[in-house]
Amino acid sequence: MKKRGIGIGSIFYGTGYGNGFPDVSKAVAQLKSDGKIAIYVGATEVGQGAKTALSQIAAEVLGLSVDDIVFINEDTSITPDSGTAAASRQTYNTGNAIKLACEKLKRDILEVAKDYLGLNSIVGLTLKNGYVYPKTLPEKRVSLGEISESLESSLKEEAVFTAQTTEMDEETGQGAPYWPYTFSACGVEVEVDTETGRVEIIRAVLAQDVGRAINPELIEGQIDGGFAMGAGYALYEDLKIEKGKIKNNSFTNYLIPTSLDMPDIEKVIIEDPESTAPYGAKGIGEPVMIPVAPAILNAIYDAVGVRMTEIPVTPEKLLKAIKEKEMTYNEGKN
Amino acid sequence: MKKIKLTVNKKEYMLEIKEDTRLIDLLRDVLGFTGVKEGCGEGECGACTVIMDGDIVNSCLVLAFQADGKEIITIEGVESEEEIHPIQQAFLDVGAVQCGFCTPGMILSAKALLDKNPSPTREEIRAAISGNLCRCTGYNKIVDAIERAALYLKRGK
Question: What parts of the sequence cross the membrane (chain B) (predicted)?
Fold first, then answer.
């Protein structure tokens, strides 16, 4: 028999290294001779979209299009340390460092533009689409390329962002181990085949607090990907380690979800800007995955009334649990 | 050694190969089509997918001599001289690429599907790419992209 059930899971998650560990990102912003802006960061792109989102932050500060940002990362001989692409920290931590570096560079650019244009002050100077001009007199303008050419050495600024966390008290467990926190919730409907123990995810919704969505399309991609990993964690993926060696080191015996295992997901992006974040944006890489497994296990409970306490919930384990429950029920009747 | 003749991306090649050379090694190491990716090397992940006479194959499981007389398409042969293929455009427009390792195989599986079935349902798309594993995207934007590619291809005709 096929039985359906629904379940939800919700989480909060502290991003960054946390627990008082120094969490530092550095960034360098430079005005190039052609008027474009080079950003140097040691932030690794692994498909999550760091290059895109971080370029957008730089472009936003400097009033430019993303095409005017030359984003240089992953070359450790010329980039500063921006920490690891881990702990869902690059958007918040390196994003903040880039924003600070670009703000400093912007001030330098305005100072040079002030002299170039023969103005008294940088007050009211606008930097937009590659030009600097007084808000009140847009015809009087100078391009970033002209500014760069007028200088003997290029304008360059470095900034450091250090996140605020404290160690937890060992005795009481109290403290402020992470900042910022992010929140998410997931709902799924599953169909359990009580004869085979197979669980199919019929539909799903996942809502993620993102602070501010720098790039909604990338966030949707992270939600889909995180859901797939969460579903694999809940239902398929079982790393067998014996004496420090992985026994099932191939896709034949370590199963990950395929396109047929994934439902379409209703994705909800919740924007609640974080005051210490670059334009309010928080990291969401890991958070999108975390509520998925509890939601699925709750849905299995709703469908067949058995509370699974070990993952992955393979067909064999679930079938055994269903049979045990039936036996207990029948014994109770006799 | 064995002499074979095959067509790769519309160009004909006469080659002398060892009997145990895999098609993927011929394509990557001899002919330089490095868009063919080796993931697992045992036919599970689909990263090495190429189109052989209209059907997708895992080029890690095909021996090069089995491609004698066949026509192969790799990701390098999908675009025309002027522009990228509508399926590639759809992947870009939808945001269906994350780390990108599965992408060549995904696009070739999509092409093999759309060449035969220009109006697939989402379920048919899911089935067509079920041999291509992806760890980043959760597949949904890839399915969206193939749906959109079907529209682009119809509009182009």
Answer: none
